[in-house]
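Handover notes (outgoing to incoming on-call)

Open items:
1. histidine kinase: sequence verified, structure written out, both below. Nothing else pending on this one.
2. Nothing else urgent.
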Amino acid sequence: ADTHLELDRAPTEVRDLAQAFNMMLGRLSAAWDQQRRFVSDVSHELRTPLTLVHGYLQSTLRRCNTLSEPQREGLEIAASEADRTIRMLQDLLDLARADGGHMRFHIERVPLKDMIVETVEMCLYPSDRVNVDIQATGFDARADRNRLKQVLINLIDNAVKYSEDDTVVKVRLKQEGEWAVIQICDRGRGIPTTDLTQIFEPFYRVDEDRSRATGGTGLGLSIVKTLVEGMRGKIKVQSKPGEGSIFTVSLPT
Ligand code: ADP
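histidine kinase C-alpha cells:
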C-alpha cells in the first residue's frame, strides 16, 4: 500500500523537483552572467590606465639616456609585465564576450591553403622552423577569417614556444569527409597526460610554466577553444611528454 501511495505522489514530487531545479538553474545562470559582466567591466577599466603606464615606461626607456643599467633593466621588466597584463586583459575581455555569446562571428568561405600560408608568413618565423604541408587543395572551410587566423597564430606560437629551436613545427591541412582538418604538430617537450584535460581551462598552465615570471598568460588555449567552437568546429590535442604535441582543429567545409 505504501508503494502505491509513493507512486501516487510521484508526479507532484517530480514536478516540485523540476521546479526547484529550474529555479536553481535560473539563479546559477544569473550569477554566471553577473560574473561575466564583472570580469568584462574590470578588464575594460584596467586596460586604459595600464596602457598609459606602459606608454610612459616605453617613452622613458626611449628618451632617457642617463639611466644606469640596473635602472634600465628594472624599467624594461616593468614595461614587459605591463604589456603582458594588457594582453591578459584583452584575452579576458574576449573570453567574457565569447562566453556570453556576445562575440560576433562573420562566417564565410575561407580558402584554407592561402590563409595558412599567409598566416605563417605573417608571423616571420625563421624559414626552417615552421613547415606547411598541404595534402589537399582547392577546398574551403566555413569560418571567420580573422578568428581563424587568431586560432592558428596562437597554436603555432605555442608549438614554437614549447619546442627547441632546432626542431620543426609542421602545419598540416587535409580533408576528412565533411571536415577541413588542420594539425599543428611539434616535436617539443609535450604535455603530461594529467594536464591534458585541463590545458583548455582559463589560466591553466603546466607546472613548469606556472612558475615562470614572464611569458604566457594561460588564457591562449581557452580562447582558441572558444573561438573554434564558436565557428562550429572541434579541437583536440594528443601529446607525449618528451616527444611532442599535435593540436587538431576541424572545421566544417
Ligand atoms: P600560455 O600563455 O601559458 O602559453 P596557453 O593557454 O596557450 O597558455 O597554454 C596553456 C599551457 O599548455 C601552457 O602553459 C603550456 O604549459 C601548455 N602547452 C600549450 N601548448 C603546448 C605545446 N605545443 N607543447 C607543450 N605544452 C603546451
